[in-house]
Amino acid sequence: MAVRDLGLLDTPPERRFDRVVQLAARFTASPIAIFSLVDESRVFLKSVSGASAVGVTLSPPHREYWFCSHVVASGAPVAVRDARVDDRFDRLGIVTGSPSVVSYAGVPIRAPQGPYVGALAVLGLEARDYSDEEMNTLLELAKLIEAELSSLPHSAIDTLTGALTARTFVRLGNRLLELSDSRGQSSAVLRLDIKGTTAINSQFGFEEGDLALVDTAQLVGSTVRGSDLVGRVGPDEFAVLLLGAQADAAKVVLDRLREATGTHNATAGRRFQLAFQVGVSEHAIGGGSDLSTQLVTAAMVADLEL
Fold first, then answer.
1. Which residues pair with 275 in a beta bridge?
2. How far is CA 286 from the centre of its chain?
3. How much is the pTM?
4. Does the pLDDT at position 255 exceed 60?
5. How confident is the prediction for the chain on average, in pLDDT?
6. In order of start, what are the domains of the chain with their CATH numbers?
7. Residue 70, pLDDT above cutoff 90
8. Closest alpha carbon to 18 in 135, 113, 141, 100
9. Are the C-beta atoms of 229 and 25 separated by less than 8 Å?
């Protein structure tokens, strides 16, 4: 009943969950990651990352035998080094098939009401052990999904652009900075101010101004990884948290954004031209998790133009 109360069964993928699943795959060097919901009678895969890229088809799993069912039943993490020699899973189609899913690590996810409703998990095509650090990382990432479940409906998303709201961007970003710090990975923050929005609104109307915001969110989203955070942090300002990236990687993203903006301006048929003032702030390892300060720093050095 708790799973059904969430209203997520048989719904399409959502970026707020997909980004966490993609992070799970990245942080554990796993080819496949999933967020599953385990109902009384079935399992629903709400988010899947990487399966198609390695040729694995994840059909609707059997509730009784599926990996994540064991996680939910026990309310504890489950790690499987080699499912082919584990009598709980050795008959699963994805284990006996080709390519074969061999290893698994999953952690439980609680509903706001308290019961366990699903699992965040990673799967591999070779036998492997999962370290304590990797299991702890999955537990931390599972908390992000639990936070999203507690905020239903989608109050965390800016309704116009589909980007994260400023509050959610900072809240999730701080958690991910802590996680990156614990793994010894630096990160970078981009801040983009749309140039000339006042002129767009006054010349062409607020509907065109809204289009400029929507176009910007789509351009930024298309030039970063799905696991990076994109937020609308002001009326005409957007920010990106590039996890595990340094300033050099941020420059690569900016080059892609510059090219994408030029293509958009040449082909979209808008009455305005998009241009941005951009600032970059690098988050040093051990620098603490204060994304609000990073945004201010990026704004202060906004000396690049796209």
1. none
2. 22
3. 0.75
4. yes
5. 87
6. 2-150 (3.30.450.40), 164-305 (3.30.70.270)
7. yes
8. 141
9. no
